[in-house]
Amino acid sequence: MVNTSYGTLRGKVDSTPSVPVAKFLGIRYVKPPTGPLRFKAPVSPDSWDSVRDALTFGDECLQEDNPNYPFRAGNRRPPRSEDCLFLNVYSPTQRNGQVPLPVMVWIHGGGYRLGSGSQIDVTTLATKGVVLVTINYRLGVFGFLSTEDDTLPGNYGMLDQIAALKWVKENIASFGGDPNLVTIFGESAGSASVSLLTLSPLAKGLFQRAVMESGVSLSPWAVEFPGNRVSSRMAARLMGQAVKCDDLNNSTALLSCLQQADAVKLLNSSNAFNNIISPVVTIFGPRVETTFGFLPELPSTLLSKGQINHVDTLRGFTSDEIGFLIPLFSRNPPVKVTVEVAKQVLGEQLFQFTKRDQGKLLELLESTYLTDTSSSEVLQRKALDARDNFTFVGPTIMELNDVVRGVPEKKHYLYQFNHRPSFSKAPQWMSATHGQDLYFLFDVQQKMFTDQGNGPPDADDILVSQQMMEMWTNFAKTGNPTSTVPTGGVTWSQYISPTAPHYLLINSTSELKLWSQSDVVDLTRKVLEVLE
Predict the structure, then answer these.
(1) Does domain 317-531 fall into CATH 3.40.50.1820?
(2) Full-model pTM
(3) Active-site residue list
(4) Cα–Cα dist 330/523, whole Å
(5) Fold agreement between 2-189+215-307 and 317-531
(6) Alpha-carbon distance 113 to 497, whole Å?
(7) Alpha helices in 376-505 (DSSP H)
(8) For the domain 2-189+215-307, what is the CATH code?
């Protein structure tokens, strides 16, 4: 039993791991965002008098079905509905005295349109001496639809994340967690969310550390850019049209009509629209707005002004991020990569932008990466590097350079996850691809992962997993992610500045190295000049 500021919860103790973990699942942290609260900022939940069970996950937020999505905690997926704003708390039951434990809040990825807090089992990580929290937040059209005015400003999904962090600050002490030692961490769109929270004035003071895995605020898919071919307002009008709202020019009338529309019809219309416009990237995502003030200016502007929340950070990417998204490169027998094929691969990353900007960006990527046409293998490698650097690597390094300059008194770390899983189905020439680091962070040996047809992990997989779990929880506890696994392992030095750019190359034997590719930052700068 735990007393929260809203009422008493009953959880359950899972005794199967090495350290028993108390689990409180499906905790409502705001009112259901339905009816008149659809497309509105979250509202504090009602309190209750009797004991409320917190034994099963709450509903997932409405989203399209994606049978290829690899993460699913437990045998059954929770139902999906619009009433989905729940969080889950995992608290280890063994601790030293009454000292509160560091808290880690997981923000899931999925392109702002997929996923849930229940999709990954974080139990093993909780056994490492931290209280784990996983959250749901509104996705896709429900989380981000905007008419670009005060009536429908957008960013509801981001405000959900802030509401969850406020709930944690207010209540986590009751679960044995330290409300003043909170680390937020996420992957992909969850990582970009973490990055945006480090910039948002609304999130100031809600966390002390932040971990970003494959995604930052400067990633070209992370926020709405002026260079996007479909603006938020256009998308909102199209959604209104799809559900037969008559007055598309009056935001107040449109909001009222959209709040009464059938949720599933809205979801299906938005998915169909998204898949036509930009199948790789969501068209419903965070945007600059001053009504709520979640993101008052573009991330690049906030970073250049030093308007950043002063927290410790750890960020990085996998070695071959986009490899998983390029079907051409996974064919058997392999496709012969010509210059034209390489251009096609580069163009697939640019669908979200206007034709004019697509042309400029394609020219930039070609002139930077497709200069050596000596062989199919070289072109293949360069095309993948171009997409990785455009999407993840350049934005991460550029943002980190701004952060170490603007927040020099805090600790900042960079990594590249380079371990190719023994169960990888990617072509042999690829290393770790997007999302594969999660298998290792959340315990590569857990049943949820081995049941996916991967087979048992090998010794190197297990070693990397032990490292990852210790590094991430060490960072949450002390601000220093250096791991004792393997024995005599390397010290992970801070990324001090572009002139002392230490990073950890994570593998079965991890290595401390110096980042040498300054050209990726030049690329990102040129990309942002086109898009902004």
Answers:
(1) yes
(2) 0.97
(3) 188, 321, 434
(4) 27
(5) yes
(6) 35
(7) 376-388, 394-406, 437-441, 447-449, 459-478
(8) 3.40.50.1820
